[in-house]
Every structure is written in structure tokens, then in C-alpha cells.
Specification:
- By secondary structure, the chain is an alpha+beta fold.
- It has one domain (10-96): Winged helix-like DNA-binding domain superfamily/Winged helix DNA-binding domain (Arc Repressor Mutant, subunit A, Orthogonal Bundle), CATH 1.10.10.10.
- It is 61% helix and 14% strand.
- The chain has 5 helices and 3 strands; from the N terminus they run H-H-E-H-H-E-E-H.
- The protein has helices at residues 7-20, 23-31, 39-46, 50-62, 82-96, and strands at residues 37-38, 66-71, 74-79.
- Strands 1-3-2 form a 3-stranded antiparallel beta sheet.
- Helix 2 packs across helix 3 (39-46) and helix 3 (39-46) crosses helix 4.
- The radius of gyration is 14 Å and the shape is globular.
- It starts with 6 loop residues before the first helix and ends with a helix.
Length: 97
């Protein structure tokens, strides 16, 4: 890094790492690696109640880690962009090194 991030950028970085520090949210993000899923599908994969998964998805969506789209009564979630999985992949690479 040539110059330090701004205070606002550092706050955003900190917020992202706080989000990623939760195992449940990590499981949800990894469940979305292969593509979009609805809450029911995610809840089955992470073995949690739908209401708990919905709460975590709301936090992830508010922080641009996931995005959603509605199809009828069903809402589908997916990673917001490839950067989200890149962060996870690089972290995993680091701990396996």
C-alpha cells in the first residue's frame, strides 16, 4: 500500500472483518459460493432455523456481502460480487500455507 486507507475506509475494512469473524455468516457465504439460493436452502445447508439465517442475511446484505432478488414470494440470495469469495479464498490459502 502506497498510502494508508482513510479513516472511513479503515472503518469499512473493520466492519467486513467483523462480519466474517462469525462462523454462521461464514457458512452462509460459503453456501452461496456455487450460486444463488433461497433462505430455506441456506438454512438446510447450515443446519439453522430460517429466522436466524434471515437475520444473518440481512446483516450481510446491508454490508454488500450478498445481494437478493425476488421471484414471486421467494427471495434468492447470492454473493454480491466475486470479491467476497476472493477474500474467503485468500484467507483460507493463508491459513493453509
Amino acid at each position: 500500500m502506497e498510502k494508508l486507507p482513510t479513516l472511513q475506509e479503515m472503518e469499512q475494512i473493520s466492519r467486513i472483518f467483523k462480519l466474517l469473524s462469525d462462523k454462521t455468516r461464514l457458512k452462509i457465504l460459503l453456501a452461496l459460493e456455487k450460486g444463488e439460493r433461497n433462505v430455506t436452502s441456506i438454512a438446510e445447508i447450515v443446519n439453522m432455523e430460517q429466522s436466524a439465517v434471515s437475520h444473518q442475511l440481512k446483516l450481510l446484505r446491508e454490508n454488500r456481502m450478498v445481494r437478493s432478488r425476488r421471484e414471486g414470494k421467494t427471495i434468492y440470495y447470492q454473493l454480491d460480487d466475486d470479491h467476497v469469495f476472493d477474500i474467503l479464498e485468500q484467507t483460507l490459502e493463508h491459513i493453509r500455507h
